[in-house]
Design a protein that fits this description.
homodimer; 4-stranded mixed sheet; two-stranded antiparallel sheet; 3 helices; about 15% helix
């Protein structure tokens, strides 16, 4: 029975947009996409698995970086076409730039200012 | 000078996904889209204006319902293709169902359970 998966209003490409929010800080960490398999795996493993639209493959968040997202809760919106995950972000770093959140540019006057610190240098995250 | 608008990685359709988060409760309220004009108007008026993909027109949030979103902060993510708004949600209701947040279905076992109360009946929000 995967009725809960059928109830989602997938896009024509079979995807659904996903917002990940940190369960502790309350910060919105990132935005990504899932297909049906990614969501099933996320549910099964308790760890966020996304669909990379650029690489056209499953993206097990944290597989390379160790920045795994433990999923505490999965929510669906009123139109059943957007997901919201509440996650425990391992090491507190969601962004590939080494920041807590991907939303680190803030519009100040007419400029996108970087307002969040790098917690770990990308060179230290992604070892060759 | 609208360089800040040019720096956004708009989709092929000229849109950008937008997450609205309540500045007080920290809750993720809704997910929608903006085009360039919607974002410019949001900035100018200090109130969220979205692009309705279904109705193919600007959607001044709260124009009918009164549930205006006063924008406190606009953020952009690492890839510059997703926006995050921090908003003051007037009347505390973002959802057309009369709930605080649109993300009111929670996955419990294999069911999407409604876990947020209706604060105002839609019939009371949208007067004929």
């Amino acid at each position: 029975m995967e009725n809960w998966l059928d109830q989602i209003a997938w896009t024509a490409e079979g995807l659904v947009p996903v917002i990940a929010q940190d369960a502790s800080s309350g910060k919105v960490l990132m935005f990504a996409w899932m297909n049906r398999e990614a969501l099933r795996l996320t549910r099964e493993t308790g760890k966020a698995v996304y669909w990379s639209r650029s690489r056209k493959k499953l993206w097990r968040k944290g597989q390379e970086s160790g920045h795994v997202q433990k999923v505490k809760e999965i929510r669906l919106d009123c139109d059943k076409d957007v997901l919201l995950l509440s996650v425990e972000q391992q090491h507190g770093i969601a962004c590939h730039t080494g920041r807590h959140s991907c939303f680190f540019h803030r519009l100040v006057d007419d400029n996108w200012q970087v307002v969040e610190p790098v917690l770990k240098e990308p060179g230290q995250i992604y070892q060759p």
